[in-house]
Amino acid sequence: MKKQFQLILITLLLTNLTLIQSQAQNEKQKDQIRSKCNLTRLASLEQEFFQKSRNEKQLALQIARQRGWETRITKPDGSVMELQRVVDGKPSYYTTTSYVAARSTRTDHLHNGGTLGLNLMENGMTV
Q: Three-state DSSP class for 125?
């Protein structure tokens, strides 16, 4: 039964990957999209936002040490909260919410280290 479930899951995954790949842009379409974008400005904004986020987190971690706040919390359902910044003197955490959904739909078996033994990370796909 477990093997049959795994085969069905792999079949569904491969079908979805094929559909995703068939809907991705081809090189000509990608070039057309790039030609309409200010890539230099986008790269500059990316760096600006990344630096701002990093600075906010470093400040938040410093304040957390002073005030005894937790910086990473694993909740009973397996989701994780991590301190990102301080807003109006209060800690602001980002939290994962997909862990429970992944478990309930059994897609957690597809993750790296899952029971199917797959490695689906960074396969050169364009989404």
A: coil
Specify the pairing of strand 80-87 against strand 72-74.
antiparallel
Cα separation, 38 vs 40, whole angstroms = 6
**80 with 73: CB under 8 angstroms?**
yes
pTM, entire model: 0.52
Q: What pLDDT tens digit does each residue of the chain (127 aa) get?
A: 556 666 676 766 666 655 555 556 788 888 888 888 888 898 899 999 999 999 999 999 999 999 999 999 988 877 788 999 999 999 999 887 666 666 666 665 666 666 776 666 655 555 4
Any bridge partners for residue 93, and if so which?
83
Cβ contact 84:92 at 8 Å: yes
